[in-house]
Automatic annotation (TrEMBL):
PANTHER family: SPOT14 FAMILY MEMBER (PTHR14315), THYROID HORMONE-INDUCIBLE HEPATIC PROTEIN (PTHR14315:SF18)
Keywords: Cytoplasm, Nucleus
Protein name, as recorded: Thyroid hormone-inducible hepatic protein
Main location group: cytoplasm
Family: Belongs to the SPOT14 family.
Region feature Disordered, mapped onto this chain: 84-109
GO BP, one annotated term: regulation of lipid biosynthetic process
Cell compartment(s), UniProt: Cytoplasm; Nucleus
Superkingdom in the source lineage: Eukaryota
Annotated Gene Ontology cellular component terms: cytosol; nucleus
Pfam families: Spot_14
Source organism (scientific name): Sciurus carolinensis
Amino acid sequence: MQVLTKCYPKNCLLTVMDRYLAVVRNMEQVVMIPSLLRDVQLSEHGGQAQKGASDLYAYFTMLKAIRMDVEHGLLPKEEWQAKVAGRKGDEAENEAAETEETKEEKVSGELDLETQFHVHFSSLHRILTHLTAKAQEVTRKYQEMTGQVL
């Protein structure tokens, strides 16, 4: 596993991001045959897999995609929406909805930016910490499946 070379405070967002990037890079180096992860469920703390949960391959690809966003920045909003939707339909409806959302965001955004920042910051911190644990679990499970020394 890669060692963090930068020194930030423990709960700093940059520390969490660096840790996430290092764990996902390690996962990518360990998982040589990602297709082995298909149809293998990620077990929860009790050892039971959730019904309808994604398989390890889905987690693997999701974690890699998020790593790319963390390292290289987000796609422009339009490209991201097209990627998620898989198509660029109903642009007129989207623009009308965005105009209404933008007006509401401006009003609420001006009211308490500091509170919004703390909510989003803590959410991002929590999500990255959770994703780091998932990447470690995918790596561990792959090593168990392939008989690699832990």
